[in-house]
């Protein structure tokens, strides 16, 4: 039996970084996915005794004799509740990954590969298997690639375990039950901890459950936007590392605990107000405009607070200047530009619209201009489904 699992990336509309410190944040899934296909070798098939990981888009293949992994790790654990990877196991995994000689340009991948090894062995012990990963999400671009990776890996592992109860004969994509989604989410969170250091859990939660959510101290509240939303995302291609940024905010918080507490409280209020506005009925154009103006102001305030946290970047100014030149675009776009500006750099959401307003020439012009600056633009639907799996009987 072979399973495919796909998990979406995310955008954060408000509250990134502050959410790690207990503030509310608002996030939504986007229709860009990471997909993992997993096949575990059975005894009857005979096997080469290897655990293989193929990162297809990156053209990288890794394999480990399962006996070697067994020697390095302290034995299979009982996979409930999901275990946290100890420092000692992290070191052992790092040396297993180091042996694979990951090219220097892909150095950041080492943590992702270690995370795969940890999640795999924690659920399935030392059985030989092959996992193939593909993704349409740019890595390290603020779109939750690490969470989508952890969620898709966890979902594929659990789908082939007896910890969940899925219909393996069903054709096409299927969802998990609510309690099973919670389990996938807990496993993915353990993975995110290995990649992010101290994650809030918002990225894996939105990737698991999909939709738009408000997230605060580990608790999720579903948000139902009163209008369909579509985003233009600009990737400025400036490299960043979420783990380092999260750590830098924590350091600043230790230096200035009271001032930072006020910043986090302000972000909390912004996220709550934003979630109310996004859900409030907008029966006519005037109300839509008023709501958009308020959202824009909230985004500006959020951006100011992100600067106070020390997480902003000059490339985003170029994106803002460009979108501001287009009146319609700037009105609709600025606040969402700021949303991702907050994640600090690369992914900037430039438009929020009910689907049609920005379609056509203005969007085309903005995209052309942004791309002429060397940025990459993607249009994404937001608030779609979370993780899903699909079975196929392998030959
Ligand atoms: N498809 C993938 N295959 C292997 N590793 C991956 C994959 N996607 C993400 N990762 C791991 O996640 C790391 C990127 O995570 P990081 O949290 O820095 O960025 P992000 O998740 O894209 O952005 P953010 O967390 O700000 O939304 C990569 O360096 C790699 O270790
Ligand atoms: C920056 C951050 O708020 C979101 C990363 O996408 C970190 C986290 O919540 O774990
Ligand atoms: Mg991440």
Descriptive tags:
binds adenosine-5'-triphosphate, sterol biosynthesis, eight-stranded mixed beta sheet, binds (R)-mevalonate, binds magnesium ion, nucleotide-binding, Alpha-Beta Plaits, 395 residues, Ribosomal Protein S5, domain 2, alpha+beta, steroid metabolism
Word description of this protein:
The chain has 395 residues and is of the alpha+beta class. It folds into two domains: 2-220 and 386-392, Ribosomal Protein S5, domain 2 (2-Layer Sandwich); 225-381, Alpha-Beta Plaits. It has twelve helices and eleven strands. The chain has helices at residues 66-72, 87-98, 109-124, 145-159, 178-196, 202-209, 242-255, 257-279, 285-309, 314-324, 327-343, 361-372; strands at 2-14, 25-40, 50-55, 60-65, 129-135, 212-216, 219-223, 230-235, 347-349, 376-381, 388-392. The strands form two sheets. Strands 1, 2, 3, 4, 5, 6, 7 and 11 form an eight-stranded mixed β-sheet that branches. Strand 6 and strand 7 (219-223) form a beta hairpin. The longest helix has 25 residues, at 285-309. The radius of gyration is 21 Å and the shape is globular. Residues 327-360 have low confidence and may be disordered. It binds adenosine-5'-triphosphate, (R)-mevalonate and magnesium ion (MG). Adenosine-5'-triphosphate binds at residues 34, 55, 108-109, 111-112, 133, 135, 139-147, 149, 195-196, 203, 241-242, 343. It comes from Stephania yunnanensis. Its EC number is 2.7.1.36.
């Amino acid at each position: 039996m072979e399973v495919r699992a796909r998990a979406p990336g995310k955008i954060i509309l408000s509250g990134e970084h502050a959410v790690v410190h207990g503030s509310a944040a608002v996030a939504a899934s986007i229709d860009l996915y990471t997909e993992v296909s997993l096949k575990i070798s059975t005894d009857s098939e005979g096997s080469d005794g290897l655990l293989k990981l193929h990162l297809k888009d990156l053209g990288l293949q890794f394999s480990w004799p399962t006996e070697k992994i067994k020697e390095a790790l302290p034995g299979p654990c009982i996979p409930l509740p999901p275990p946290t990877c100890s420092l000692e196991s992290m070191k052992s995994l790092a040396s297993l990954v180091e042996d694979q000689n990951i090219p220097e340009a892909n150095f950041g991948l080492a943590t992702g590969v270690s995370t795969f090894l940890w999640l795999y062995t924690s659920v399935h012990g030392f059985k030989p298997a092959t996992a193939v990963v593909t993704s349409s999400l740019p890595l390290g671009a603020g779109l939750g690639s690490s969470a989508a990776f952890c969620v898709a890996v966890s979902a594929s592992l659990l789908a082939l375990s007896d910890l969940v109860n899925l219909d393996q004969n069903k054709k096409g994509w299927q969802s998990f039950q609510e309690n099973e989604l919670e389990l996938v989410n807990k496993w993915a969170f353990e993975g995110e901890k290995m990649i992010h250091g101290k994650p809030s859990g918002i990225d894996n939660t939105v990737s698991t459950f999909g939709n738009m959510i408000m997230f605060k101290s580990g608790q999720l509240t579903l948000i139902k936007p009163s209008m369909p939303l579509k985003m233009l995302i600009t990737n400025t291609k400036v490299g960043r590392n979420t783990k380092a940024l999260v750590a830098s905010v924590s350091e600043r918080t230790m230096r200035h605990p009271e001032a930072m507490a006020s910043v986090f409280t302000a972000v909390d209020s912004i996220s709550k107000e934003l979630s109310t506005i996004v859900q409030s009925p907008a029966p006519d154009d005037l109300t839509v405009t008023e709501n958009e103006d308020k959202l824009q102001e909230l985004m500006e305030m959020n951006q100011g607070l992100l600067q106070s946290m020390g997480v902003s970047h000059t490339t985003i100014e170029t994106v803002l200047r460009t979108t501001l030149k287009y009146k319609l675009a700037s009105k609709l776009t600025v606040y969402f530009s700021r949303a991702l500006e907050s994640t600090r750099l690369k992914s900037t959401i430039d438009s929020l619209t009910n689907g049609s307003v920005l379609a056509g020439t203005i969007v085309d012009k903005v995209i052309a201009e942004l791309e002429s600056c060397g940025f990459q633009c993607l249009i994404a639907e937001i608030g779609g489904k979370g993780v899903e799996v699909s079975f196929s009987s392998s030959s």
